[in-house]
């Protein structure tokens, strides 16, 4: 009769028994991870690509983690886990419902789940290295050099293979970029990135591209939220997009959308008798159109960057969002007590979302007061509030500037500033910088394109873009 095959954990325990030593383990971290997953099922997405069941030292923990994995991060709670373990025939093996209940009390939230996951990985890598070293010793005595080389390579795989993205050869990935270029050249898609809905902006940026972190900055009341909501409204007609609004409530955003779509000033929504018959017809049509938008809103205030990352993963998994906006960066939290470092954690965390989910992330940002003391009040990169890390992490930085807000009635060429917003692209890692003009309808908080034939602003970069026959490598198209 054939002997049953022993698991890696069983083999490891035999080795430690022979050595007379306790194997590396962090059972408290294992309990913390499992408890986090039970308390906050969605935290699974934060460690799903890091941990496997075999990495847990205790066999009971392996069984519980396996049960949790079956939920894939959705609808996972204490009752669900107990029922799943019962269905798997493992509930009594792990200690019954009482043990699961006690386990769920180990943590109050999943705030530190990644840290505990790294402890588990560390201990697992050490145990695997010890196990493989024993195999290497035996193979060295047997003088089987081929098998020995394989085991030595396996140790290297253990040490670098967990918690890291797979290394790939350019030959395996180049086709994707090549075909994207061909699609643009052959007219299958208009631009390489996700169209913003604003023609002039896309001529600079070629759309919002993955995995860019795009900072939209400005002083208060310049229209940052209006700008982002205007573009999200246009994109969401074809693609799923998400916004994590740390400042405005869902109701406030809904009212803005209704105002934009119906072209009725939102102040008319605030009093009885504010709308006439035509307004009501327009509002009903706007309501129907907005219902068709693939726009997902989360308006929980004061969120930690890890919570934002978790929600971004959920939005990607459930709705396959193509873009995420965060309004605004300085209202998110990190772990550091130092404000500059905390904001740096947030901006770096947003960049990680863009890379991990392969989507563009737009983050709104405040500017410091220095801009108020400058002639013309035109912002620049040094005005980004509280952290130079924002500039460093960002692929694109653009400023929303409306001279009209500062009682500046004309541009340098004498043209009126009324209803004109300057979108100043100050940093563009993969393209041109410069300025474009957009129409801002203050009463609707709505941004719109200005056609090239209408351009009559001092935005020289933009004006030069439409000179017929102009050819230069510095232009964005």
Please provide a written account of the structure.
This protein folds into two domains: 153 residues, DNAb Helicase, Chain A, CATH 1.10.860.10; 280 residues, P-loop containing nucleotide triphosphate hydrolases (Rossmann fold), CATH 3.40.50.300. It is 46% helix and 11% strand. The N terminus and C terminus are likely disordered. It has 477 residues and is of the alpha/beta class. The protein contains 18 helices and nine strands.
The shape is elongated
Strand order of the largest sheet: 3-2-4-5-1-6-7-8-9
Count structural domains.
2
pLDDT averaged residue by residue: 81
Pattern of helices and strands: HHHHHHHHHHHEHEHHEHEHEHEEEEH
The major beta sheet can be summarized as: 9 strands, mixed
Q: What is the CATH topology descriptor of the largest domain?
A: Rossmann fold
- Count helical runs: 18
What is the CATH class of the largest domain? Alpha Beta
Which architecture of the largest domain per CATH? 3-Layer(aba) Sandwich
The percentage of residues in β strands lies in 5-15%
CATH superfamily of the largest domain: P-loop containing nucleotide triphosphate hydrolases
Q: How far apart lie the N and C ends?
A: 74 Å
- How many distinct beta strands? 9
Structural class: alpha/beta
Task: Provide the helix percentage.
Answer: 40-55%
Draw up the topology in text.
Blueprint: H1 8-19, H2 27-39, H3 44-47, H4 59-69, H5 78-88, H6 91-94, H7 96-104, H8 113-142, H9 145-160, H10 170-185, H11 199-205, E1 213-218, H12 224-235, E2 241-245, H13 250-262, H14 277-291, E3 295-298, H15 305-319, E4 323-327, H16 339-357, E5 361-366, H17 389-393, E6 396-401, E7 420-428, E8 434-441, E9 446-449, H18 460-465
Parallel strand pairs: 1-5, 1-6, 2-3, 2-4, 4-5
Antiparallel strand pairs: 6-7, 7-8, 8-9
Helix pairs in contact: 2-4, 2-8, 4-5, 8-9, 12-13, 13-14, 15-16
